[in-house]
Design brief:
33% of the residues lie in helices and 20% in strands. A hairpin with a 2-residue loop joins strand 2 and strand 3. It has 494 residues and is α/β, with parallel strands linked by helices.
């Protein structure tokens, strides 16, 4: 046959349960055959001693640019989606990606926060990190309950985005804690009527009542039960913080009762967000979160804040600045390591990076074409090594889960979370005949993340080949700088 054959690798496909040495043939952007003795291809990859797996699917990636794609390619990712935040307007965002070309498959949900910003303070421009930070200066949309007319405006914007192909609704509830239950119930009812998930950053993250993480999950569970909406929990680890065990028990019980709830986690104890986030300005920040202000660290220069006054001053001057939030001390605290395990290893949970944009020392987002990335490009280690970190640490070194189960969490489970609402996802996350030709080939023994909190922009090692839509992006460990095979992942446009 023509096309490409990957020969003699250890094929790991959770969809079929296969974990055996075999060949995989790719033709016209699809998996054409899986078996031994396949030949006659225009291209052959010798995968002897390597793992051949479906490309990893990231449900939660904010980078959405060529530099971010390239870094994630070395992390084994073939499809990168921004679902927690999403975009607005939707159609123009997809159009821009198509014009510039993308390395990886891409897609986004509809951004509830920007629907709220538009309806409540009148900003109807393109969603972006900078626009988000600047909008935080006007606290009306952050702190106020929306009026009936404003709720109508929010719903109208969301429905328009869904009709333009948005993959569900991204609900950044923690960034607008003033949003009322009536509004969010209506948002969930809208999502349910379109049979799409919501992707939620829960409203509260404290370990103490009132407004605790447990309260936020009870609210989310209630939305699922009252509206029938598929509620997806974003970054279960950083949303639950030190109260993971209690929160996990709530979710387990809700799922056991058949409620449509799914979740994801990233394998780090440190989070990242914009400095303007409302929870940083909480007067009881230290007591409610069990961390001092020095747990908040500016990404660009590594500066840790001394106290509340310094942080508030910085919020006013540089609201869209990216910061790290060191919540779980997994290096020195055994209990914190256990809590991270509960999140990362949650049965049926997906691995998702929450990858952030790459930021230069002047605070601007890097969207250029340089490779390797500029020396001053910073982000969070998860933006470069989330999936390889998980496979290395939890699968290979600790053997907490099998390789088959590890690949399931990185590829098949994310695809299954979306398959009902987004038909294109039914062909991803698997190596069965007819599946999309999105494939990662890696050296299991050497696969490793290299990004650290002191050297963030180092790509992972061990991915020998990465194929997106049947086109090699990485070949023999070398990135093809001209490759732009990424295709949109989008719901049918109404």
């Amino acid at each position: 046959m023509s096309g490409l054959v990957i020969k003699g690798g250890r094929v790991v496909d959770p969809a079929s349960g296969m974990d055996a040495v075999s060949d995989v043939a790719l033709l016209d952007g699809k998996v054409a055959a899986v078996g031994t003795g396949l030949g006659g291809a225009e291209q052959v990859i010798d995968a002897t001693g390597l793992v051949v797996a479906p490309g990893f699917i990231d449900l939660h990636a904010h980078g959405q640019s060529i530099p971010a794609d390239r870094m994630q390619a070395f992390d084994g990712v073939t499809t990168t989606l921004d679902l927690e935040a999403g975009v607005l307007p939707v159609a123009s965002w997809y159009q821009r990606q198509a014009v510039q070309g993308r390395v990886l498959n891409y897609g986004a949900s509809v951004n509830w926060a920007f629907a709220r910003i538009g309806a409540m303070i009148g900003f109807n421009g393109e969603s972006s990190l900078e626009a988000f930070g600047n909008a935080m200066r006007d606290r009306r949309w952050v702190e106020n309950v929306a009026s009936e007319a404003e709720v109508t405006g929010i719903l109208d914007r969301l429905e328009k985005g869904l009709k333009e192909g948005g993959i569900g609704v991204g609900i950044l509830n923690a960034y607008a804690p003033g949003a009322g239950v009536q509004e969010l119930t209506a948002v969930c009812q809208l999502a349910a009527s379109h049979d799409v998930p919501t992707f939620t950053h829960v409203a509260y993250m404290s370990a103490i009542d009132p407004e605790s993480a447990a309260e936020a999950y009870i609210r989310l569970i209630g939305y699922a039960g009252a509206t029938g909406c598929h509620m997806h929990i974003c970054h279960f680890n950083s949303s639950s913080k030190t109260d993971v065990e209690r929160c996990a028990a709530l979710v387990v019980k809700a799922q056991a009762q058949g409620l449509p709830i799914t979740l994801e986690a990233y394998p780090y104890g440190t989070g990242s967000t914009v400095l303007a986030a409302a929870f940083f300005s909480d007067p009881e920040f230290e007591a409610r979160n069990g961390t001092g202000y020095d747990s908040v660290q500016r990404v660009t220069d590594g500066r840790r804040f001394r106290d509340r006054a310094e942080l508030l001053a910085a919020q006013k001057e540089e609201p869209s600045t990216l910061v790290l939030w060191h919540v779980l001390d997994t290096e020195n605290n055994a209990r914190h390591r256990d809590l991270l395990d509960m999140s990362v290893l949650y049965p049926g949970g997906a691995i998702a990076s929450d990858a952030m944009p790459w930021t230069l020392s002047d605070g601007s987002a890097y969207t250029g074409d340089a490779w390797p990335l500029p020396d001053d490009a910073t982000s969070h280690p998860r933006s470069a090594g989330c999936f390889t970190h998980f496979i290395r640490h939890w699968v290979r070194e600790r053997q907490a889960v099998s390789l088959l189960e590890g690949v399931r969490k990185c590829a098949l489970i994310p695809a299954e979370i979306l398959a009902r609402s987004t038909p294109a996802m039914a062909a991803k996350g698997r190596l069965t005949v007819g599946a999309d030709a999105d494939v990662v080939v890696f050296d299991f023994d050497t696969l490793t993340d290299r990004a650290t909190f002191s050297a963030m922009n180092r790509p992972s090692e061990g991915v020998r080949h990465l194929i997106v839509s049947g086109v090699p992006v990485i070949a023999d460990g070398t990135l093809d700088l001209a490759a732009r095979p990424g295709r949109p992942v989008r719901r049918p446009v109404a």
